Amino acid sequence: xxxxxxxxxxxxxxxxxxxxxxxxxxxxxxxxxxxxxxxxxxxxxxxxxxxxxxxxxxxxxxxxxxxxxxxxxxxxxxxxxxxxxxxxxxxxxxxxxxxxxxxxxxxxxxxxxxxxxxxxxxxxxxxxxxxxxxxxxxx
Length: 139
Prior knowledge:
Blueprint: H1 6-48, H2 54-82, H3 94-110, H4 114-131
């Protein structure tokens, strides 16, 4: 059994969490594009129905706004976490990384942007779990 240093194992967990974040951003970006296409189709239907399908535009638009908010929130998390990455792809100063995410979350909560703060908290917790994981010592 290979011995891996605690720091290297922590790096692997943080990198894995960062990749999960990147994947979530990718999926949200695809959803944004899909909703933009749906909105264009809904506009055409609204016009074809002699402007009787405004409810459809409102529904798609509000869903698009929610997805965009999530995407923008994850962008903030990614930018914050990426600032702690070196040229080799490793993350430096784990505690400062977590403190920066916590500060970002609290700043949005102070502005009463609770949805954004909740999204940031979710990712703060994921990165915190990656940094402060408990090793499974059962063999």
